Amino acid sequence: MSIQRREFVAALGSGALAGLAGCAGLVSGEDDGDGPAVAGETLTLATTTSTYDTGLVDELDGAFEDRYGVTVDAVALGTGAALETARNGDADVVMVHARSLEDEFLREGYGVNRRDLMFNDFVVVGPEGDPAGIAGADSATAAFEAIAAAGAPFVSRGDDSGTHAEERAIWDAADAEPGGTRYREAGQGMGQTLNLADQQGAYTLSDRGTYLSQRSQLSLVIHVQGPIEGGPDRLANPYGVMAVNPAVHGDVEYDLAMAYIGYLTGPEGQETIANYEVDGQQLFFPQALSEDPDFQQYVPEGWREDGEESTEG
Question: Which domains does the chain have, with CATH numbers?
Answer without folding.
Answer: 5-120+238-304 (3.40.190.10), 121-235 (3.40.190.10)
